C-alpha cells in the first residue's frame, strides 16, 4: 500500500525538488499511519539556490545577487511555469548576502487513493525569509509535497462533493489539508533548526476542482485583479493586525509566556515610574474600545506589542506574526521565547472560478512585502493592467513583463547608494519617494487558462462516466 | 577558477540585431537561428587571457525594446565595456545608435569602453548600411568598430577580446581607478571573505557543539555557513561598491 502511495506521489510531484527521506520503507505501514504520524521527516539541508523554474546556473545565481545593480531576474524559459505565469524578482540593496525570498510552482494530477479518479491541480507558493535563507528554501522544496500528501488522503467522495446541502463540503477538506500541511511544514523546520534560527512567510495558491484557494501566513500578500477591480485575497499578519490574538495569549498565559517581563495590556502612551497611581487609558486584549485604570508597577513592563503598522513588533523583536520557523527566537536582553506567539496557521480563502466571469486578462498577483511596502494593491493592479493591455507581444510574454514592471515599480532607480521611485503625478509634478530596499518577488498567475482546462476536464469526466455506464464489463484495473 | 580581473560587459542595441546570438556564439560557440525574445537580462561568462593574465568576462545581455529601456538603463552600473550592436541589413537599427549612445554615456562610468558592432556580416547581399558608415560613426564618437557575424562566428571572438584589451590598457595606464571600480576582482575578494567566515563559523559551531559535526558546505560560493551572519557578508558586498 505504501509503495503505491509513494509512487503515486512521485508521479504527482515530479520528484525533481524532493530530498525527502522516509523513516521506513516498510510495506506494512499503512498510508493513514504515514499521513497522521506527524513525525517530522528528516530533511537534508540544501545549499542556497534560486527558484528552479528560473533555471539559473551557479554563475548566474552569483550575478543575480549584485546588490548595487539589483538585476530583475525573469525565467529564461517562460513555459517552465504553468500557463506561462509571469515571474520576476530582484535582490535587496545589501541587507543580506542572498535573496531570502523563494517561490515554486507545481502542476500534476492528484490521484485520489480510494477512487480511480485523478484531478488536475496547479499550485504556486511564495516565501519571504528572514534571518537567513534556509527556512524559505526548505519550504520551497517541501511545502507542495506535504500539501499533496494531505490532499491525497481526503476521501474522493468528500473531495469532489461541492453539493450545496452537504454538511461538509469538499472545499472545507481542502482548506483543512492546507492548514495541516502548514503546521507540518513548521514542525519540519523546527526539526531542522539546529542550523540556526530564521523563518519565513508563506503564500500558496491552489487550483483544484474548479476552485481557487488562496492561503497566506505572514505579511506577503495575494491580490485578485479582476477587470477594473482588485482586492486582497490574503490578510497581512503583523503584530499590529494580530494584536488581539497575540495579546490574548499573553493575557491568558501571562506567567508562563511573559515571564514577568512584558505586559499584554495596551496603553495609549508609554508610561513611567512617576505615573504609577494615576488613572491612565488602557485596553485589555478582548476590547475594541478604551477604559481607565490606575497604573501599577507591573504595568510599566515592556509592551508585548509595540509600534504601529509595518513597524509594529512582538516583544520589540519581530514584525511578522505568522509563517514557518523562528523556533529559537528570543526577545532581546530578556531571553523570553517569542515562538509561542507566532502561528503557522494560514488563513485560506476559496473562490469558485465559474462565478467570477473571468476574461483572459484576469490574474492574481502574489508578492512579498518588498513590493507591497511601496506599491498599493490599486497601483499594482493598474501597472499590471497597463502592461497586459497591448496585443503584442503575446500574453505569455506580457505576464512576465507585468511581473517585471511590478518589481521595477518597487525597486526604482539607484542614486549613489540609495534607491528612489519617481512618479509623474496628475498635475505634472514628479513625486519622489523611497523605493523598496528589500528582496522583491512577484508572480502573476492568469486565471482564465485554468478555467478552460477545468471545463474540459469536467466534460471528459462526464463522457467517461456515460461510457462506463454503457459498457459495464470494463474493469477499473485495465489501465 | 581564479582570475586576476573581472570585467563586466553590457550588450545593447535594438531588438533583433543579434545581441543574444553574439553572446551565445562567444560563450558557447554555437548559433541558434531562433532565439526567444529577451524580456529581462541574461548573463554569460567566459574566461580569456590577456597579457598572460586570466580575465573573466561577465556579460549582461539586455532587452532592446523601448518598453524595457528604463530597466536596461539600470544595468550599466559597474560595466567596464559595452557592445553597441546594430544590424547591417536594417538601417533603422543604425539610425537608433545615437539614442543608445546617449543612454550609455549618461548611465555608465565615463571610462567605459564602447565597441560598435555591425552584425550579420554574412548577409552581405541584403546590406543596407555600408561598412564605411559604421567606421565613420565610430570615429566621430570615439568608439572601436567591427563587423561581425554571430552566425559564422566571424570577428565575434575579436569583438569581445579587443574590448577587453582596450579596458586592460586603460587599467595599465591608470585611467581606471582600480580601488573604485567593479572590474576589480570583487567577487573573488568576496569569496575569500565568505570562505573565511564560513570556516570560523564552522569551527565555532563544532567546538561549541562538543564534537557534533555540522557539515560544512563544500562549495566556496555556498552561503551555507554564513546564513546567520548575513549582515557581515552583505556589508562586505556593499563595502566594495
Ligand atoms: N544571418 C544572421 N542572422 C543572425 C545573426 N545574428 C543574429 N541573427 C538572427 O537575428 C535574429 C535576432 O537575433 P537575437 O540574438 O535574438 O537578437 P537580439 O534581440 O538583439 O538579442 C535571430 O533570428 C537570429 O537568428 C547573424 O550574424 N547572421
Ligand atoms: Mg536578445
Description:
Chain B: Pfam families: Ras. Chain B: Its main location: membrane. The complex is a heterodimer of chains A (479) and B (241). With 479 residues, chain A is of the alpha+beta class. Helices cover 30% and strands 23% of the residues of chain A. Chain A is built from 12 helices and 21 strands. In chain A, strands 2, 3, 4, 5, 15 and 16 form a 6-stranded antiparallel β-sheet that branches. In chain A, a hairpin with a 6-residue loop joins strand 2 and strand 3. With 241 residues, chain B is an alpha/beta fold. Helix content of chain B is 39%, strand content 18%. Chain B has helices at residues 19-28, 69-73, 91-95, 97-107, 131-141, 156-172, 186-208, 230-240, and strands at 5-12, 42-50, 53-61, 81-87, 113-119, 144-147. In chain B, a hairpin with a 2-residue loop joins strand 2 (42-50) and strand 3. In chain B, helix 7 (186-208) runs antiparallel to helix 8. Mean pLDDT of chain B is 80; it is low at 178-188 and 203-241. Classes of the chains: A alpha+beta (479), B alpha/beta (241). The complex binds guanosine-5'-diphosphate and magnesium ion. Guanosine-5'-diphosphate is lined by residues 15-21, 33-35, 38, 64, 119-120, 122-123, 149-151 of chain B.
- Mean of residue pLDDT values of chain A: 88
Biggest β-sheet description of chain A: 6 strands, antiparallel
Number of helix segments of chain B?
Answer: 8
Q: Ions, cofactors, ligands: which are bound?
A: guanosine-5'-diphosphate, magnesium ion
Structural class by sheet pairing and helices of chain A = alpha+beta
**DSSP summary: helix tally of chain A:** 12
GO molecular function, one term (chain A): phosphoprotein phosphatase activity
Keywords (chain A): Hydrolase, Metal-binding, Protein phosphatase
Protein name (chain A): PPM-type phosphatase domain-containing protein
Pfam families (chain A): PP2C (PF00481)
Amino acid at each position: 500500500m505504501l509503495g503505491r502511495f509513494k509512487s503515486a506521489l512521485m508521479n504527482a510531484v515530479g520528484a525533481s525538488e524532493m530530498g525527502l527521506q522516509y523513516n521506513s520503507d516498510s510495506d506494512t505501514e499503512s498510508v493513514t499511519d504515514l499521513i497522521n504520524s506527524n513525525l517530522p521527516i528528516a530533511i537534508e539541508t540544501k545549499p542556497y539556490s534560486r527558484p528552479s523554474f528560473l533555471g539559473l546556473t551557479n554563475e548566474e545565481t552569483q550575478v543575480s545577487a549584485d546588490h548595487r545593480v539589483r538585476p530583475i531576474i525573469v525565467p529564461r524559459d517562460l513555459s517552465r511555469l504553468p500557463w506561462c505565469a509571469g515571474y520576476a524578482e530582484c535582490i535587496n540593496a545589501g541587507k543580506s548576502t542572498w535573496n531570502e525570498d523563494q517561490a515554486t510552482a507545481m502542476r500534476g494530477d492528484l490521484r485520489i487513493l480510494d477512487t480511480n479518479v485523478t484531478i488536475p491541480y496547479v499550485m504556486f507558493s511564495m516565501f519571504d525569509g528572514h534571518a537567513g535563507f534556509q527556512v524559505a528554501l526548505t519550504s520551497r522544496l517541501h511545502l507542495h509535497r506535504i500539501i499533496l500528501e494531505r490532499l491525497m488522503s481526503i476521501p474522493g467522495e468528500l473531495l469532489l462533493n461541492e453539493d450545496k446541502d452537504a454538511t461538509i463540503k469538499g472545499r472545507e477538506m481542502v482548506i483543512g489539508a492546507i492548514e495541516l500541511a502548514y503546521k507540518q511544514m513548521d514542525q519540519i523546520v523546527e526539526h531542522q533548526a539546529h542550523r540556526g534560527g530564521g523563518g519565513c512567510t508563506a503564500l500558496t495558491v491552489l487550483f483544484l476542482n474548479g476552485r481557487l484557494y488562496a492561503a497566506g501566513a505572514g505579511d506577503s500578500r495575494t491580490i485578485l485583479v479582476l477587470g477594473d477591480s482588485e482586492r486582497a485575497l490574503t490578510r497581512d499578519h503583523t503584530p499590529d493586525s494580530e494584536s488581539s490574538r497575540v495579546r490574548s495569549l499573553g493575557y491568558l498565559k501571562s506567567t508562563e509566556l511573559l515571564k514577568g517581563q512584558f505586559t499584554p495590556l495596551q496603553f495609549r502612551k508609554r508610561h513611567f515610574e512617576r505615573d504609577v497611581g494615576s488613572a491612565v487609558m488602557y485596553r485589555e486584549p478582548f476590547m475594541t474600545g478604551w477604559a481607565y485604570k490606575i497604573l501599577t508597577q507591573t504595568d510599566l513592563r515592556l509592551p508585548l506589542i509595540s509600534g504601529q503598522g509595518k513597524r509594529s513588533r512582538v516583544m520589540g523583536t519581530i514584525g511578522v506574526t505568522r509563517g514557518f520557523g523562528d523556533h529559537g527566537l528570543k526577545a532581546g536582553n530578556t531571553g523570553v521565547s517569542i515562538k509561542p506567539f507566532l502561528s503557522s496557521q494560514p488563513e485560506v480563502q476559496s473562490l469558485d472560478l465559474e462565478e467570477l466571469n473571468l476574461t483572459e486578462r484576469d490574474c492574481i498577483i502574489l508578492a512579498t512585502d518588498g513590493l507591497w511596502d511601496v506599491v498599493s494593491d490599486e497601483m499594482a493592479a493598474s501597472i499590471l493592467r497597463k502592461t497586459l493591455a497591448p496585443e503584442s507581444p503575446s500574453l505569455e510574454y506580457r505576464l512576465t513583463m507585468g511581473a517585471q514592471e511590478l518589481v521595477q515599480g518597487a525597486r526604482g532607480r539607484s542614486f549613489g547608494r540609495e534607491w528612489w521611485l519617481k512618479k509623474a503625478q496628475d498635475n505634472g509634478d514628479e513625486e519622489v519617494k523611497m523605493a523598496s530596499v528589500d528582496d522583491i518577488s512577484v508572480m502573476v498567475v492568469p486565471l482564465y487558462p485554468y478555467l478552460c482546462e477545468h471545463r474540459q476536464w469536467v466534460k471528459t469526466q462526464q463522457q467517461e462516466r456515460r461510457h462506463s455506464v454503457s459498457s459495464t464489463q470494463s474493469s477499473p484495473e485495465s489501465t | 577558477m581564479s582570475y586576476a580581473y573581472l570585467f563586466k560587459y553590457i550588450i545593447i542595441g535594438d531588438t533583433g540585431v543579434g545581441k543574444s546570438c553574439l553572446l551565445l556564439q562567444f560563450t558557447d560557440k554555437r548559433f541558434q537561428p531562433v532565439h526567444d525574445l529577451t524580456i529581462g537580462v541574461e548573463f554569460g561568462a567566459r574566461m580569456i587571457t590577456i597579457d598572460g593574465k586570466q580575465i573573466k568576462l561577465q556579460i549582461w545581455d539586455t532587452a532592446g525594446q523601448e518598453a524595457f529601456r528604463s530597466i536596461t538603463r539600470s544595468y550599466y552600473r559597474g560595466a567596464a565595456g559595452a557592445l553597441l550592436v546594430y544590424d547591417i541589413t536594417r538601417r533603422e537599427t543604425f539610425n537608433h545608435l545615437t539614442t543608445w549612445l546617449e543612454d550609455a554615456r549618461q548611465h555608465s562610468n565615463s571610462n567605459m569602453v564602447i565597441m560598435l558592432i555591425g552584425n550579420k556580416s554574412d548577409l552581405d547581399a541584403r546590406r543596407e548600411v555600408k561598412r564605411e558608415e559604421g567606421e565613420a560613426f565610430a570615429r566621430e564618437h570615439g568608439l572601436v568598430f567591427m563587423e561581425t557575424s554571430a552566425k559564422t562566428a566571424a570577428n565575434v571572438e575579436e569583438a569581445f577580446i579587443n574590448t577587453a584589451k582596450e579596458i586592460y590598457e586603460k587599467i595599465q595606464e591608470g585611467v581606471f581607478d582600480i580601488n573604485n571600480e567593479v572590474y576589480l576582482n570583487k567577487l573573488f575578494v568576496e569569496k575569500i571573505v565568505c570562505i573565511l567566515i564560513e570556516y570560523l563559523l564552522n569551527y565555532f559551531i563544532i567546538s561549541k557543539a562538543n564534537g557534533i559535526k555540522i557539515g560544512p558546505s563544500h562549495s566556496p560560493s555556498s552561503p551555507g555557513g554564513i546564513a546567520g551572519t548575513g549582515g557581515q557578508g552583505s556589508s562586505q558586498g556593499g563595502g566594495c561598491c
